[in-house]
Amino acid sequence: MMVSSPFGGGQGQAGLPRLPTPPTGWPIGSYTTYGEAQQAVDFLAESEFAVTDVTIVGVDLMLVERVIGRLSWGRVLAAGAMSGAWFGLFAGLLLGMFVNQGGFTLQLLTGLVLGVLSGLAFSAIGYRTSRGRRDFSSASQLVAGRYDVLCQPRSAEQGRELLAKLALRPPPLAS
């Protein structure tokens, strides 16, 4: 997977534009889920189709935020302590590997304790400053209303024919 930067210029890997560029091509299929569009492109690849001519485009984008649970001081502090502990263990590990004073275990424990304390402090400050405006945790996803499969004109007709064959296949049996 290539991630492009809006600051780079010219052409990226395999001739892909590095700047945000609208997609080009003719529609050869439209699907309600990304999984269906991905399955269509997989089918094209299995059929020896030139998939470098294909683009999946999400249309009618939505930001979906799913509420996971209610936040409380206990949950906030526990999450802060855990994230701080991981960072502290990592820092203690680096100190133990590169600094020969005090022993490896002592440096690892020092990093852990300082990480937990800083994680607690930062999470408490962040939660306190929100003043109850957001007392829930959530996960966000960018989803599309539909997913169009576009193809360059030189091979669009062949792509349409292959996807028509895919549409005529019986659905797989549920296991």
Automatic annotation (TrEMBL):
Transmembrane helix keyword on record: yes
Residue stretches making up the General stress protein 17M-like domain: 28-110
Transmembrane segments: 76-98, 104-127
A family per Pfam: YflT
InterPro entries noted in UniProt: GSP17M-like_dom
Assigned keywords, A-Z: Membrane, Transmembrane, Transmembrane helix
Taxonomic superkingdom: Bacteria
Designated name of the protein: General stress protein
Protein's organism: Amycolatopsis halotolerans
